Amino acid sequence: MKTKILLFIIFIIAGLQTTIAQNDRANRREQIRAQKVAFITSELQLTVDEAQKFWPVYNEFDAKREKILENRRDYLQKYIKNPDNLSDKEYEKLSDDVVKTQLDEAKLVEEYHVKFKLVLPAKKVVSLYKAEFQFKNKLLKQIRDKARENKDNVRPDDNK
To answer: What percent of the chain has pLDDT over 90?
Structure first.
């Protein structure tokens, strides 16, 4: 009986940890999204009218792009988890799937490029692409800096 109670408690704790980790990821994703919106708004210097027209289009684009990127991550996770256990046919399908997601993303960018030009002047469309690039680089720099900081904070005797 005590074993069953202990297993039940362990199961509940593991479930809570998973839920907390998922909530942390979702919260972090929302924080990044909010930072991105602020960054793009600032870089594009959108008027109120432009912002009202632009953000619904951009949010639709971003959601579709995120779905494509999620599919690509899923495909690549299959490789990461089983790099030595895939057949040649599975590797061929995996490579085809990855390329298909890249083509899907390119088609999406092309489709929304037209839509962005309908709601923004061409100069601001180019500024959008520049702002997205800069924001991605800013995030990558933050990740590298945090990783470097964490590495510097590990003492040699911590690895024992």
So the answer is: 57
The answer to whether 33 and 139 are in contact (CB under 8 A) is no
pLDDT tens for residues 77-123?
877 787 788 888 988 988 899 999 999 999 999 999 999 999 999 99
Domain holding 126: CATH number?
1.20.120.1490
Give yes or no for residue 131 having a pLDDT over 60: yes
> Residue 53's closest CA among 119, 145, 7, 137?
119
Structure tokens at 132: 């997205």
Q: What is the DSSP secondary-structure string of the chain?
A: -HHHHHHHHHHHHHHHHHHHHHHHHHHHHHHHHHHHHHHHHHHHT--HHHHHHHHHHHHHHHHHHHHHHHHHHHHHHHHHH-TTS--HHHHHHHHHHHHHHHHHHHHHHHHHHHHHHHHS-HHHHHHHHHHHHHHHHHHHHHHHHHHHHHHHT--GGGG-
Residue 75 lies in a domain: yes
Mean pLDDT taken over the chain: 85
Specify the residue for token string 């929302």. Answer: 30
66 is in which domain, residue-wise?
2-148
